[in-house]
Give the backbone structure.
Amino acid sequence: TYAAAKNWKDTESRNALDQNIQDLVILLATNGLIKKDDKKTFTITRTGRICASSGLTLETFKTVLQIAEDSILSALDIAVIVSFSGEAGPNGVNLRLSTEEYHNRTPFFISSLRDAAATIEAPLAQAMLDDLPDSSLPSYERVKTLKYQAIAIAYISGIASRDIENKFGVSSGRAKVIGSMCAWLCDNAAAVAW
């Protein structure tokens, strides 16, 4: 393109582009998304095709690979993973947390998650809960992930939309989007496992 010809006109820019491409090829190959064939050309693997069509970032997809290969996780663990992903987590679904909620509702979010973790085996969620500070509030960003997780568990547990809206201060539409994000990650993990 004209822009490419203009931007990579000098040797330094072309070398930087070449280095970026080499780094990405190594990253993709290391994660099993591409492989070198007998003719020394790269081809995309089945897992690479799933990654490319998933819409997930490579970092989140690596987590999906780990889920598919290592263990069967609970719904709560899935909610934890999704809540920390950029594209599907709190910022990805535009989940708000007011200052009032941060100060007054954080204990409720934590207790909701502790109650859920007490009823199902959820090693990731339990580790995350054990890592929370005892004497102070977690960071604002961490509380957003806690709120997200609590909404996800309420939604998939079949709690009525009106109750979710009242308890968690979120619209039923936003709760549905959060549930959909968790399903999206599960669908991709299932595709990889298959």
